[in-house]
Amino acid sequence: LPVPIGNHILSRVLTLCDWENANGRLYMMKVNNLVTKQIVACLFGLAISQAAWADGIQKLGFIDTERVYRESKQAQHIEKTLQQEFASRQAKLQDLQRAGAELEQKAASDKLSPEERQQVLQRLGSMVQQFRTEQAQLAEDFNLRRNEEFAALQASANKVIIDLAKQEGYDLIIQDAIYVNGKFDITDKVIRSLNH
Predict the structure, then answer these.
(1) Which pLDDT does position 55 carry in this prediction?
(2) Residues 6+ apart with CB under 8 A from 86
(3) Centroid of chain to Cα 72
C-alpha cells in the first residue's frame, strides 16, 4: 500500500529498490543513492533546526495551573463564595434526600397495607425524579458559575504571568505539561504575585 512520506509515496521508493524474499524475510538488495541522500539531508535539517530552536530559548518557565486554581487566595475565595451562593439549594437537596430515605423506610415496613405501600412507592418515585432533576440543575448552575469565576482568575493569572515573564526575562513559559523538571517551575512566584 502506498504510505505518504513527506511529498513522496512509499511505493515510489519501493520501485527504486530491488527486493528479494528469502526464508520469509525481505532483504533490500540495492537502494537508490538519491533516496539515501534525501533522507540524510532531511535528518540533518531536523537536527540543525532543533539546535537553533533550543539555542534561541535562554530562560524557560513552567506553571501548574491546577495549583494556581487550588492555592491562590483568589481561587479559595471563589470556592468559598460559590459554596455560600449555592448553600441553600444544597440544603434543599439534602432535605429532599432525607425525606426520600424516610419514605423508603416507611415502604419497607410491614405496617402498611398493599394500597398504602403502593402510594408510598409512587410518592417515593416522584421524589427520586425530583431529586435527580434538581441535583442535575444544581450541578449545571454551579459549574457554569464556577467557570465564569475561574475565567476571571485565569485572565488575572495570565496578566501576572506576562508581567513576570517581562520582568524576569523569560523566553518561554509553559502551562500544563506531562513532566517538567522542578528547576523550571515558577508556580509559587505566580501564586505569590496573585495573592498580593
Answers:
(1) 58
(2) 138, 141, 142, 145
(3) 20
